[in-house]
Amino acid sequence: MLPRVRIQSHARQLIAVANLLGSDYTEGLAGVGPVTALEILGEFDGSLVKFREWWEAVQMNVITKENDEGNPFRKKFRKNATKLFLPPPFPDPRIAQACIEPEIESDALPFQWGVPDLDALRTFLMATTVRTQERTDDVLVPVIKDMNRRADEGTQANIKAFFDGGVGVGAARINARGEACAPRKRLEGSRRLGNALGRMAERVQRVDMQGVEAEERADEDEVGPATNDL
After folding, report:
1. Highest mean pLDDT among 3-17, 29-43, 143-157
2. Residue % of the chain over a pLDDT of 70
3. Which end is more exposed in the chain, N or C (fewer Cβ atoms within 10 Å of the end residue's Cβ)?
4. Is residue 145 part of a domain?
5. Domain shared by 127 and 66, yes or no
6. Higher pLDDT, 192 or 167
């Protein structure tokens, strides 16, 4: 049963990360990036409820600077915690529910690209960029014509059409023979990210072992004690 326990554990962590960074169902927390999100989950044992309780205690000065003095992460993060805003309720249980059981469009009609509303685009650009209609049309009309041409030809542009030269040329270096090749410089990983991932891995391992032990106890209870009767 180990794979099921591990998948469930990972799913909960991904939902927690989505609450912090943002997703289709939430905007996330301003000022919290990927590394900080992993550090928060590692520090508070993967529980956003524990994180919220600590944050609330910091806001009310129930947990003082002296209380967090011996904890490097909390000592550093509490400087930003006073500026952080956690929307009520946090974490919102509806986000987890939406991730686990998303609402799927049931309309059986095939997908079809719509046609841009030229008049609406013109009005929007004139209002937001303070351009005249003539200058706005200089931008919009060629785009609409190109879309109509591709629709008539049945072709669709890909990302290569927007770059000059070979794809990936900017990331390559030139060797002594004038040939493009991959750069030799090794990118060093973030120490903060490595530490955060390490703590997360340790927590997952603990959860996995607890799940395995629970499954084994359940199996033993179901089978019953072993006997020597033949």
Report:
1. 29-43
2. 68
3. C
4. yes
5. no
6. 192
Residues 119, 93 within the same domain: no
| Same domain, residue pair 95 and 14 | yes
Same domain as 138, residue 64: no
Task: Measure the CA dihedral 48/50/55/59, to 10°.
Answer: 140
Name the domain boundary from 66, 100, 134: 100
- Report the amino acid identity of residue 75: K
- Could you list the residue range(s) of the whole structural domain that residue 72 is in? 2-100
Residue 25 lies in a domain: yes
- For residues 83 and 31, the answer to whether their CB atoms sit within 8 Å is yes
pLDDT at 105: 79
Report pLDDT for 28: 92
- Pairwise CA distance, residues 147 & 200, whole Å: 47
pLDDT at 140: 87
CB-count exposure of residue 67 (10 Å: 0-12, 13-18, 19+)? middle
Contact of 52 with 39, CB cutoff 8 Å: no
**Domain tally, the chain:** 2
**C-alpha to C-alpha distances, 166 to 54, 181, 192, nearest whole angstrom:** 52, 12, 36
- Cβ neighbours of residue 198 closer than 8 Å, sequence gap 6 or more: none
